[in-house]
Design a protein that fits this description.
Elements (H helix, E strand, L loop, with lengths): L11 H6 L7 E7 L7 E6 H18 L5 E4 L5 H13 L2 E4 L9 H11 L3 E4 L4 H10 L7 E4 L22 E6 L9 E5 H15 L6 E4 L6 H14 L2 E4 L2 H6 L2 H9 L3 E5 L1 H10 L2 H4 L7 E6 L6 H11 L9 E6 L6 E4 L7 E4 L1 H5 L10 E4 L3 E2 L3 E5 L13 E6 L11 H7 E2 L2 E11 L2 E7 L4 E3 L2 E3 L1 H11 L3 E13 L2 E10 L7 H16 L5 E4 L17 H9 L2
Parallel strand pairs: 1-10, 3-4, 3-5, 5-6, 9-10, 9-11, 11-12, 12-13, 26-27
Antiparallel strand pairs: 1-2, 7-8, 13-14, 14-17, 15-16, 18-19, 19-21, 20-21, 21-22, 23-24, 25-26
C-alpha cells in the first residue's frame, strides 16, 4: 500500500543554511530546572546557524569524516546546536543522553562502547556527572570531551563547504530502544533523513507556521525528528521541554499545547493516559487546546480506551478528537511509516476467533484495534512471515516497508542487517493487517504466543490484566509464552500500584478469571513485581520489555 516518495535529496543542513539571515525564533527551550515555572530560552535561525557553523568548524579539527561524535548532553539548546553541528561537520552523530537517570546507564554504556565515539559533546552543566560516569562506568573514555558552550566563538572558517558524497554519507546512528533484543545502531544516511522529514511534514501538514511542541527525548527517533529535524526542514518553530519535566508535572505539556499556535505534538500512548489521570479538572480550566492541529500517538500500541478518555477529558477545553493521530514507525525507517489522516482515529472491532487464525474480520463484538492509518511517500505491504509471499487484505502477516527513508543497516552487524533489510524491504518484525485500506498493528512476531494452535497477542492479554483489578499499574504488565512438559502456556508479570496494600490472592483470582473469560486460556503463572524490587522491565523509551521480563522470570 502507498507509493514511493518524491522526497527531495538535499542534506538537512542546507535547509538550515537557507535561513541563516532570519531573525525569527527557531527553537525555544522551556527551562524548568530547579522546579521553576517554564522559562523560555530562544534561539533565532541566524543565531542557530552561527553557532552550528562554529561547532562544525571545531569538530573538523578534532574528527575526520566518518568518525562518531556522541551527544551526551541534557535536552536543552546545546543538544540542538551539537547535533546539527555534527551533521554540518560531516562526522557521524550519535544522539544519546547525559548520565542523569541511573536506570538508563546500561543503555548509555552499551551504545558508547558499540559506536566507539572518539569525541563526546556535552554541556557545562553536565560535565561533572559525565566525568564521574567515565571513571565509574565500564566505558572507554573519549579522546575529546568537549562542551558545546566552549565551541561557540566565531568560527574562522564559518563558510564551511559541505562534505562530498551527498546523501549517501552517514548522518547519525539511531540506537533502538531494545524492546526485543540488545540495542543496535540503525545507520541513517543524509538521504534517509531528508526523506523521513519530508514524509512527516507531508503526512502531518507541517510548515513554517507550525509549532512543533513536546518533550520526547532527542535520543529517541520520534523526538529527534519531530522536535529537531522537521523544524529545520520546514522552518517551523520548535518548543520543547526536558522529558523528566513532563513526568514530574504533566500539565507542562498541556500548557505548551495551549500557549502556542498551530501545534504539532507527539507522545507515546502512556503520556495521553498520564495526562488524563494526573492533571486534575481544576488545572484544566485555563487550557485552550483548540489550536492543536496534530497530536501524534505512536512509539507503542495505541489503545482505544486511551483515545476515548483523552477526547472526553480535553474536548471541553477545545481539543478536537480528529487531531488525535495514531501512527506507526520505527528507528529502522528513520521514524515514519504510517498515520491517521484528517479524519482522526479509526477504531474497528474484529472477531477474536478469526484473529486467532490470522484473519481480520469486522464484527459487532470482539477485539478492538486502533488503525495507524495509511503510509505516505513509501510502500508498505503485509507478507507471510515464513514464505515471504504478499498477503491479501484481511490476512495477517509481517509488516514490510520500502522507501528512500530506510536505514542502511545496523552498525557493524552485517548478518542482522542482511536479515532485516532484504531485497530492498525492511522486515519490521511487527504483525499487521490491512483492512479497508488502513493498517492495523496486531503484535510482534517474536512475542506471538501460540497455545493449542491459536494465536494469542500479548498486548491483548496485558490490557485484559490491566483492567482486571485496580491494584495493577497500567502499562506495567508483561505477558509472554513459556514452554514445559505441558506444552506452550502464558505467564503474566504485573506491577502493583505504588503505596497501595495489595491482596495478592484476590488480584490473582481476578486476573486469572478475566484472562480465562476473554482469551479462553488458563494462565500458567501470574506474579506481582513491586517497583522497589525492580518492577516489570522496560526499555529506555518506556515500553515493556517482554524478552527481559521472560528472562527474569526464567532466571528465578
Amino acid at each position: 500500500m502507498g507509493g514511493l516518495s518524491g522526497a527531495p535529496e538535499r542534506p538537512l543542513i542546507e535547509y538550515l543554511l537557507d535561513r541563516a539571515e532570519s531573525t525569527e525564533v527557531a527553537f525555544t527551550y522551556l527551562d524548568c530546572t530547579g522546579g521553576r515555572d517554564a522559562e523560555p530560552r530562544d534561539l533565532t535561525w541566524a543565531e542557530l546557524t552561527r553557532q552550528v557553523r562554529a561547532v562544525a568548524a571545531r569538530l573538523r579539527r578534532v574528527a575526520a569524516p566518518g568518525d562518531r561524535v556522541a551527544l551526551v548532553t541534557p535536552q536543552d539548546l546545546t543538544y540542538v546546536v551539537g547535533f546539527l553541528g555534527a551533521l554540518y561537520a560531516g562526522v557521524v552523530a550519535v544522539p544519546l543522553f547525559a548520565p542523569e537517570v541511573r536506570s538508563h546507564r546500561r543503555r548509555l554504556v552499551g551504545a558508547l562502547n558499540d559506536c566507539e565515539a572518539r569525541v563526546w559533546l556535552t554541556s557545562r552543566g553536565a560535565m561533572d556527572k559525565l566525568t564521574d560516569f567515565t571513571t565509574s562506568a565500564p566505558v572507554t573514555p573519549p579522546d575529546q570531551l568537549l562542551c558545546v558552550e566552549d565551541l561557540l566563538l566565531p568560527a574562522e572558517d564559518a563558510d564551511l563547504l559541505l562534505p562530498a558524497e551527498g546523501g549517501e554519507r552517514v548522518a547519525y546512528l539511531q540506537y533502538t530502544s531494545g524492546s526485543t533484543r540488545e540495542p543496535a545502531g540503525a545507520v541513517i544516511t543524509h538521504r534517509a533523513l531528508t526523506a523521513s522529514v519530508w514524509q512527516v511534514a507531508g503526512a502531518y501538514q507541517v510548515d513554517q507556521r507550525t509549532t512543533c511542541a513536546g518533550w520526547i527525548p532527542f535520543f529517541h527517533d520520534m523526538g529527534l525528528i519531530q522536535l529537531m529535524c522537521v523544524p529545520v526542514f520546514t522552518g517551523a518553530r520548535s518548543v520543547f521541554l526536558q522529558p523528566l519535566e513532563f513526568i514530574r508535572r504533566p500539565i507542562r505539556w498541556l500548557r505548551q499545547l495551549s500557549d502556542y499556535p498551530a501545534v504539532f505534538t507527539a507522545a507515546p500512548n502512556f503520556a495521553f493516559d498520564y495526562a488524563v489521570t494526573s492533571v486534575p479538572a481544576s488545572a484544566r480550566k485555563s487550557l485552550d487546546l483548540g489550536d492543536v492541529r496534530v497530536a501524534l500517538n505512536g512509539s507503542e500500541p495505541v489503545r482505544p480506551a486511551t483515545v476515548r478518555a483523552f477526547a472526553e477529558a480535553f474536548a471541553p477545553h477545545g481539543f478536537r478528537p480528529a487531531a488525535h493521530r495514531p501512527s506507526y514507525g520505527l528507528a529502522e525507517a528513520t521514524v515514519y511509516v504510517s498515520s491517521a489522516g484528517d479524519e482522526g482515529p479509526t477504531i474497528t472491532t474484529f472477531d477474536r476467533d478469526a484473529l486467532a487464525t490470522g484473519t481480520a474480520v469486522a464484527a459487532e463484538t470482539g477485539t478492538e484495534l486502533v488503525s495507524v492509518g495509511r503510509p505516505f511517500g513509501q510502500e508498505v505491504r503485509i507478507a507471510d512471515s515464513k514464505t515471504g509471499e504478499p498477503c491479501p487484505d484481511g490476512r495477517m502477516g509481517e509488516i514490510q516497508v520500502r522507501g528512500p527513508h530506510l536505514a542502511r543497516g545496523y552498525w557493524r552487524q552485517p548478518e542482522r542487517s542482511a536479515e532485516t533489510f532484504a531485497d530492498g524491504w525492511l522486515r519490521t518484525g511487527d504483525l499487521g493487517v490491512f483492512h479497508d485500506g488502513q493498517l492495523y498493528i496486531t503484535g510482534r512476531i517474536k512475542d506471538l504466543i501460540i497455545v493449542d494452535g491459536r494465536n494469542l497477542y500479548p498486548q491483548d492479554i496485558e490490557e485484559t490484566v490491566a483492567d482486571a483489578h485496580p491494584a495493577i499499574r497500567r502499562d506495567r504488565v508483561a505477558a509472554f509464552g513459556t514452554a514445559d512438559e505441558r506444552g506452550e502456556g502464558v505467564v503474566v508479570l504485573a506491577e502493583p500500584v505504588r503505596g497501595q496494600e495489595v491482596d495478592f490472592a484476590q488480584v490473582s483470582k481476578a486476573v486469572r478469571a478475566a484472562v480465562s473469560a476473554q482469551h479462553e486460556v488458563a494462565l500458567r503463572d501470574f506474579l506481582l513485581l513491586p517497583a522497589e524490587d525492580g518492577g516489570v522491565p522496560r526499555t529506555s523509551s518506556g515500553k515493556v520489555a517482554r524478552s527481559a521480563a521472560k528472562a527474569r522470570y526464567e532466571a528465578r
